[in-house]
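[Q] Does anyone have a clean structure-token version of this?
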Amino acid sequence: MWSRFVTRARLLRALIAFGAILAVHRSDAATTTLLVDSQLDGADAAPGDGTCATTGGSCTLRAAIQEAGFPPNDVLVLVPGGSIA
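[A] Here you go.
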């Protein structure tokens, strides 16, 4: 029921507006920081390579979450605050 009230676009707007920080924790691992720098919705070009980058070279929220799903590092995903026009 909640999904009909929240679309992906609204969720992305809210995350960007509030400067969200998402973290995935794994024990005994180094931390990788990924900075979301695009408001577009693009997939990671090579999930698991340690780099958040779409085929266009930007780091989208989707690409960062995809990259965070691969071990062995802890991953900190930074979503800067701002507004979407």
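[Q] Thanks! Anything notable?
[A] The chain has a mean pLDDT of 78.
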